[in-house]
Amino acid sequence: MADSSATAGGARAADVDVVVVGAGFAGLYLLHKLRGLGFRVQVLETADDVGGTWYWNRYPGARCDIPTTDYTYSFDPALETAWTWSEKYATQPEILRYAQFVADRYDLRRDIQFNTKVEAAHWDAAANRWRIRTSTDAKLSAQHLVMASGCLSVPKTPDIPGAGRFQGPVYSTGRWPHQGVDFTGQRVAVIGTGSSGIQSIPLIAEQAAQLTVFQRTPNYSIPAGNGPVAPERRAPLEANRDAYRLAAKWSRAGVPSEPTQIYGRYSPPDVHAERFEAAWKTGELIPILGVFADQILFPDSNAIVAGKVREKIRAVVHNPETAELLSPKDHHFGTKRPCLDTGYYQTYNRPNVRLVDLRRQPITSITETGIDVGGESMRFDAIVYATGFDAMTGAIVAVDITGRDGVTLKGKWAAGPITYLGLMSVGFPNFFMVTGPGSPSVLSNMMVSIEQHVDWISDCLVRLRSDGLSTIEPTPQAEAGWMQHSQDCAAITLFPSADSWYMGANVPGKPRVFLPYVGGVDAYRKACDEVVARGDLGLRRSGPAGERCNDGVVRQLQPDVGMVLDMLAAMNLPTFDSMPPEAARAFLAQLNAARPPGPAVGEVLDGSFPGAAGPLNYRLYRPATPGPHPVVLYYHGGGWVLGSADSDDPLLRDLCVRSGCLIVSVDYRHAPEACFPAAVDDAMAALRWVSANAESLGGAPGPVAVAGWSAGGNQAAVVCQLARDQGGPENPQIAGQLLLTPVTDGERSTASYRENAEGYVLTASLMQWFFDHYADEADRHDPRIAPLRAKSLAGLPPACIVTGQFDPLRDEGAAYARALEAAGNRVQHIAARGHTHTSLTMIDVVVSGEPVRAQMAAALRGFFARSTVAA
Ligand code: NA7
Question: What are the TM regions of this chain, as residue ranges (predicted)?
Answer without folding.
Answer: none
